[in-house]
Amino acid sequence: MDLKKLPKTEFAAAVAQIAGERNIDVQSILDSIEFGLISAYKRDQKEHGVIVPDEDVFTAELAPESGSFKVYKIDGDQKTDVTPPGFGRIAAQTAKQVIDQRIHEAEKESVVAEFEKKMGTLISCIVLKNDPYKMVVGVGKTEGICPKDEQIRDEILPLGAKKLFLLKEITRDETGRSEIILSRRDSAFVKELFAREVPEVANGSVIIEKIARTAGERTKIAVSSNQPGIDPVGSCIGQKGSRIQAILSELPMEEKVDVVAFSQNLTQFIAQALSPAQNVKVVEIKNNCAFVTVPESQLALAIGGGGENVRLAGQLVGLEIKLTQS
User: Fold this and answer.
1) Would the CATH topology of 186-262 be identical to that of 276-326?
2) From the CB of residue 69, how many other CB atoms can be counted at a distance below 10 Å?
3) Can you give the pLDDT at residue 3?
4) How many CA within 13 A on the CB side of residue 209?
5) Which CATH architecture does the domain made up of 276-326 adopt?
6) How far is CA 61 from the centre of its chain?
7) What topology does CATH give the domain 122-183?
């Protein structure tokens, strides 16, 4: 319905004003109110002990010229006015609730449209609510969720905490409602932290070639440079460790981050991937398995707590690594 064609009554003026200010289609508001009236009618009947069969068909009609409402029962070609006495007050409350909901949804959709342009980047959020299945966070003027499987295991974020999250995806249900899905567990979360803190990563002179992560425990990241004279590992660490410390401050205290130099030479890459262990020797690579020896003093470092270091090194190089003492 065109704004100019909407009759100039107090009700119509209010709807037109809301539609104009919030950029919501007038007819969309009116349709939503009519749908809400049917729900309100059924709820009102139930409260008065009247059972409304599910198969009954109803329609609601809104007269914009007067702001009055009517509910009709449809039976074939017959239309019967079933508007209860005093329904005007309920209808007015319903109209307000529907309009408020439409405003909220329209504002959220506007925000979601902006966030769609930022997919895969880090955004700052405020923790609003925690339950066993998800975390609800404030994202600008709307809300997003971080599902349990996108959270870092055992990380407890207090309510009101302001933290960075990876904008992972935006989902839509069958009704078209949007949900902003966030993550702190995804490996891309750490990758984006490096892009945020290391200018050479942000401008592309240092390339993150591969990344392997067990969120909350350890991350291994392999980097290279496409420009002579740039040390990719040094760039990521920063002077006196300033850049890596800024990255670690956004991660749980327990999570370690190893930055290693990527190499096309697989033997060299395997040795570097097993950092912080030193004096690593690759004996043989066969059947997707690398057989590696390390000195006794380096064996514990190469394996890592619970085997985490060697497992992530294997993920980084794409092979199973079998360690023995040299």
Assistant:
1) yes
2) 22
3) 37
4) 19
5) 2-Layer Sandwich (3.30)
6) 40
7) OB fold (Dihydrolipoamide Acetyltransferase, E2P) (2.40.50)
Q: What digits encode the pLDDT tens for the residues 154-177? A: 888 999 999 999 999 888 776 667
Q: Residue 175 has what pLDDT?
A: 65
The residues spanned by each domain of the chain are 3-116, 122-183, 186-262, 276-326
List the chain residues with pLDDT less than 50.
Answer: 1-7
The whole-number pLDDT of residue 4 equals 36
Please give the pLDDT value at position 31: 78
Write down the pTM of the prediction.
Answer: 0.68
Separation CA 96–CA 102 (nearest Å)? 10
CA 111 – CA 139 distance, rounded (Å): 9
